[in-house]
Amino acid sequence: MKKYSIVLILILISIKGYSQRMVYKQKALEVSAGMLSSKEVGSNYYVNLTLNSYARRGNYWIWSAEFQRRTTDYKQWKLPLENYLGEVGYSVQLLSDKKKFITLNGGLTGIAGYEVVNRGDSLLSDGALLLNKGGFIFGTGGRLSLETYLSDTVVLLLQGRLRVLWGTDLEQFRPSSGIGLRINF
């Protein structure tokens, strides 16, 4: 079954379409993942699922859902911090070559979601009481993405993002970097 799935994906990717790129009202589905900090990448990551709708001149609307997981140190333990975020924004094409094979986009977004600290448990293993509680968070974000077409429908993304979040007792400024794949349909 796995072998057939891989063959089917390769066939779908290799289908040559002679359509234009970034066509007005064209939709795309994007999956991306990345790291939230340079230390302990395995426990400081995000996974993002985005629906894009192209506007004119290579610009596009962004609607996304994201899960973030970070850890913070407390004595010899690592406390988990998880965010469930929704994001809406607009991305503007800053630079591109003539055929839009490689583009540089910048975007601004509005963010809202929920933050969970230590899986909602306020009592720590050593008997200490955690004062930071989970709750609703909101904010804004900026992103810079370098995008290149692997085929007429598949795009590879490299992203750098900065988020400013309110309603949190923890870090307000949250940079991240990641890689993603977008499929235009």
How much helix is in the residues?
under 10%
| Topology, number of strands | 8
Structural class: mainly beta
Principal-axes geometry comes out as elongated
Q: Approximately what portion of the residues adopt beta-strand conformation?
A: over 45%
Describe the model.
The longest helix has 13 residues, at 2-14. It is elongated and about 60 Å long. A hairpin with a 6-residue loop joins strand 7 and strand 8. The chain contains one helix and eight strands, in the order H-E-E-E-E-E-E-E-E. It is mainly beta and 185 residues long. The protein has an eight-stranded antiparallel barrel with strand order 1-2-3-4-5-6-7-8. It starts with a helix and ends with a strand. The chain has a domain at 71-166. The model has no long low-confidence stretch (mean pLDDT 86). It has one helix spanning 2-14; strands spanning 27-35, 45-54, 60-74, 77-96, 102-117, 135-149, 154-166, 173-184. It is 7% helix and 59% strand. This is Conjugal transfer protein TraO. It comes from Chryseobacterium pennae.
Keywords:
single chain; 185 residues; mainly beta; eight-stranded antiparallel barrel; 1 helix; 7% helix; 59% strand
Helix and strand topology:
Layout: H1 2-14, E1 27-35, E2 45-54, E3 60-74, E4 77-96, E5 102-117, E6 135-149, E7 154-166, E8 173-184
Antiparallel strand pairs: 1-2, 1-8, 2-3, 3-4, 4-5, 5-6, 6-7, 7-8
In short:
The protein has 185 residues and is mainly beta. The chain is 7% helix and 59% strand.
